Amino acid sequence: MRMSNALTLSQPIRVMLLLGALIVGASVLSLNIGFIQLAPFDVLKTVLGQGSERQELILFQFRLPRIVLAILIGMGLAASGAILQGVSRNGLADPGLLGINAGAGLGVITLILFYPAAQASVPFLLPLAALGGAALVIYTLAYKHGEVTPSRLLLVGIAVGFGIGAVTLVFSLRMDPNVYRFAVVWLAGTNSATTWSYVLALLPWTTVLVPLTIYKAKMLNVLNLGDQVAVGLGASVEWQRRLLILIAVALAGSSVAVGGGIAFIGLVCPHLARRLVGPAHQVMLPVTLLLGALLLVVADTLARNLLAPVEIPAGIVVAVIGAPYFLYLLARTS
To answer: Domain spanning 22-333: which superfamily?
Structure first.
């Protein structure tokens, strides 16, 4: 029995180790390449404190915060997608498709409209504004008769997402031209203006919510069995569903607040994780987190270098990867 368990666990562990190595490799590559190239030896010297001031500025103030933030955002969006797919029992659920990203975007744009300095001087307010906007969408519109049902969550989220996107665009048109340019790029999903303050603004959310998500893995397994079976097993279905949706909203909202409207990570990564290690959330969730981090680090590196010195929003690169996969999933589901 012990030998069987060891063999069962060896595959997920190998996958996690491989993904961890790929994240490290992609991060090191991202530190080296850019409009201003840094040789691997120069990067090593700079890390050891022997680089020039210019190299230290490029490495520690521009590239390293972007990589760290991409890892945090990728993990947050991927975890949010995995929770939503588990709660709704629908493989097409995603923070972007359910209107959570749109609600978070509306919260941030509203804050910037009335307090333009927030995006630069008080980045810690951005996740709070995003959480407020995203929670408003989910709990005000999908909540009915004392519960949030999976089908209503999906239908309301998709419908409201389009409407909120239009309102967000109207709000952004009322901004100062300089702030408007920032808003347009931000809505497409970008890490271009990243500083360590943005990393510090997101880090507490990720540090608390990601372990909580993994802790709730067994409950997601129970909810996947259906409400009647879950109740029969002693689960408080409605309370657990509300809590898990709140965690998903907080993860997506805080990630969108600092990274913009990056879609498809929450959709694609859970599916890839299930293919690699199976549907059990105890192993699927950690793999999903690593896949989200890897995908966004690679996407951000490509966005920064494909048309350098012009930068493509990372959200567009992710969409180019994710949209065909979404169509494939849609066709397969149909």
So the answer is: ABC transporter involved in vitamin B12 uptake, BtuC (1.10.3470.10)
